[in-house]
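User: Before I run my own analysis I want an independent prediction to cross-check against. Here's the chain; please return only the structure tokens and, at the end, one sentence I can use as a sanity check.
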Amino acid sequence: MLDRKNKNRLIRIAVSLLIFLPVFILDLCLSLNEFLVLALTLCSYLIVGYDVILKSLRNMKNLRFLDENFLMLVATVGAFAVREYLEAVAVMIFYQIGEFFQDYAVARSRKSIANLMDIRPESATVVSGEEEKVVDPEEIEIGDIIRIKAGEKIPVDGIVLNGTTNLDMKALTGESLPKEVAEGDEVLSGSINMDAVIEIRATKPYFDSTVAKILDLVQNVSGKKAKSENFITKFAAIYTPAVVLGAILLAVIPPCVDGLWQQWIFRALTFLVVSCPCALVISVPLSFFSGIGGASKEGILIKGGNYVEALNKANIFVFDKTGTLTKGEFEVVEVCAASDSSEEEVLRLAAAVEKSSNHPIARSILRKVSDLPSDSFSVEEVAGCGLIATSEEMTLLVGNSKLLEQNGISFEVPSKEGSVVYVARNQKFLGSIVIADVPKEESYETIRLLNQIGKTVMLTGDSSSVATNIAGRLGIQEVHSELLPQDKVKQIEEIISSKKEKDVVCFVGDGINDAPVLMRSDIGISMGGIGSDSAIEASDVVLMYDRLDGILTAKRISKKTITIVWENIVFALGIKLLVLILSALGYANMWMAIFADVGVAVLAILNAMRCLKIKNKKR
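Assistant: Structure tokens:
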């Protein structure tokens, strides 16, 4: 969606073209009256370029006028002075089109990220004796008792006083597995109560709570990201004063010697027409825009030309774990059976007990059983331990190690890392099921290739043992685990502060909890397929197909784009320099000047369009 500034520019370009094109065609065919051509082209010129003129005049007033706006002004006024009216308008139209593409690519309007982050609770129920009072979370004080029903968000950090439940903490830690909490356990604001009513005692006011800190990080951390300067502005700071000074000297010094003022003023004006950086102001942003378009065909959304350049330089890659490196869904990775049992029996009995549960672990077990058992059990839940199921024939225990220890049953601990579900029948251990989040298929090859480019790091809210296991399997060089969103930001800031000057830190994540880190890193990449709205808004690059190897494709596209950009810069400047010298010596006529301007611009644009063609390398 276009912002107001770009809508206005687009309208002005369209109106200007409606005047310019008929004049251009009719003058070419019928040789219109010069005064009529001047009047119509001047009208077209003022419509499309009045903002450039105003900026240039304003900058001249502030003594900061040697920029691309001033160069465009003197070049086009010079073209009018040598009676190349159509040329003057064409140059300004091309410039504005280039600026439109650049603004559209770089300055995409972003909505407020905080509004997209659905983690701030709208209200809270404070309990005082038998009375309940619904208040704004900001009114909660330390020590207040808060009642939270199933499906509600926890408004502030606190300690559980009554009840047992599962909390969905994916918005905070990015982890899929719900967290079981009981009396005495600490809970964080932003978590969602999944099962039963609980009561907590507030240990922090809202402004100090976890959810408030995340919102504050997202809203304010973007100011720490350095803004890359536009190449044309840097270039114009040197080029503009040089060519303007050259034109003035050309118009003044030689005629003082030979007295041919008209001839040398004409050469100086031709010099200014040649000096117009049309090829650069169009081809450079258009190259980036075409690269962005080519990336979009591959399902990669790059939010601006500066991020294309940053991607090309990226050499430190920091990853979230769940949903980024891993699938974000729990799977049965190992079934271990006791000597007098079988893997099929262990799975079948566990599924018989878990078949009415919606817990992610239960669903992962049920997916492994093709035919659900018809056994009928009376199931009792043991808080924080698991399930006890009884029937006329047997008693089954399905849960964690605590459940078996409480019932005096010895068991064998499996070798693989993950969440372990133990199964026992009639006080006898039958086996165990290991459930874990497994890496995506493309993660192995992606990490291997990125390790050849630079360094790989993993930041995760998961436990140290699980994080180390996943990192070891994938070959990630550095691991930091058990991190909350604010801890991730501190960690990424440490990485940024310790990097070398030429290093570029790239963070890849997918959850709401990743939004602050995505904005703090040099370049943030989010997984669009499963990524939260806030992560997509906070990131600079979005992998819409949700495949990690999109990072490699994005780097390949950025490298090709930057190569084409520098080809255009060298080509345009080389031709400009040659024709500037020829015009100063009197060997360049206006046709050569037009080629050095428009001709070079067309060739540079054609070269820039190569960025749209991306060969998809399949491995």
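Sanity check: The longest helix spans residues 550-585.
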